Amino acid sequence: MAVSVKIMSLTVATLGVISFIFGVVAENKKPASGTPIPGKGIVICKYPADPTVALGYLSVAFLLASSIAGYFSLFYPYQGKSAPRGAMFKSSSFSIFFNIALFTTGLAITLLVWPTVTEQIHLTRNVHQNLETACPTAKTGLLGGGAFLSLDSSLFWLVALMLAENAREDYFDEIEEKGASGEPLKNDA
């Protein structure tokens, strides 16, 4: 089965939606705080069992998979024909959406990894010398924001893929016109 733009777009969208779902569920399952258990000069924080850390890492993994698939789908030689990257980046709209997709991917990774790692640290380092500790958890809202940015990122990769397909068609049309007339095209500036 040959790889087509449709298959790649479905892959990017599916992975992005799965990342979004995992991120939202991780945000909803995160406890507000732990229960402090006082000891002799220490406080041990007991947290309820929750899948926040695992779901956060799964959300990051699917975001990375979606973004990698999105990036490679832009430059894949569909139907055995490869267009040079320079021809793609001649299109200003492609360049803009490509950079927006990269930026939202980076921001989504940041907003998903930061609270996930923070939550994991809170769960593993649960003994405190401060007797007034309130047994904190990761900042509320970051996982949800990262989940929405993950979905946005996959949508921007899809827009970039559509624009790449247009740029690829323009490039091959230009090549065919040059080959038919035997002379280079003149710019209509």
From TrEMBL:
Gene Ontology terms: cellular component: endomembrane system
Keyword Membrane: yes
Domain of life of the source: Eukaryota
Pfam families: DUF1218 (PF06749)
Topology term for the membrane: Multi-pass membrane protein
Main location (coarse class): membrane
UniProt-recorded name of the protein: Uncharacterized protein LOC111476667
Organism: Cucurbita maxima
